[in-house]
Design a protein that fits this description.
This protein is α+β, with helices and mostly antiparallel strands and 91 residues long. The chain is 30% helix and 14% strand. It is elongated, with a radius of gyration of 29 Å.
Length: 91
């Protein structure tokens, strides 16, 4: 009886190790993602407006972490913020 239990335990451990190795091998297979679609012609690079509207709050100071990116007014978000790597970060 003890021999059967030991054999079953060894088989379970061996099966678990084999299944784990197969999962790791399957997880490492990958392909390059498809390229992003091109922007439509009317969506060129973003150009912020020259000045904020009269009703806008005053421009906040430049944050220390902004790395030289200017604080701009964005009409879409209706707030002051920074454009960093194509993302608008409202202040």
């Amino acid at each position: 009886m003890r021999l059967i239990k030991a054999a079953l335990a060894a088989g379970a451990v061996a099966g678990g190790l084999t299944a784990g190795a197969m999962c790791l091998a399957a997880a490492t297979a990958s392909a390059d993602p498809p390229p992003p679609p091109p922007l439509p012609a009317e969506q060129g690079s973003y150009q912020p407006p020259a000045a904020a509207p009269a009703w806008a709050p005053p421009q906040p100071p430049q944050p220390v972490w902004a790395r030289g990116n200017p604080v701009v007014w964005d009409d879409h978000y209706r707030s002051w913020g920074l454009w960093i790597n194509g993302f608008f970060l409202p202040l």
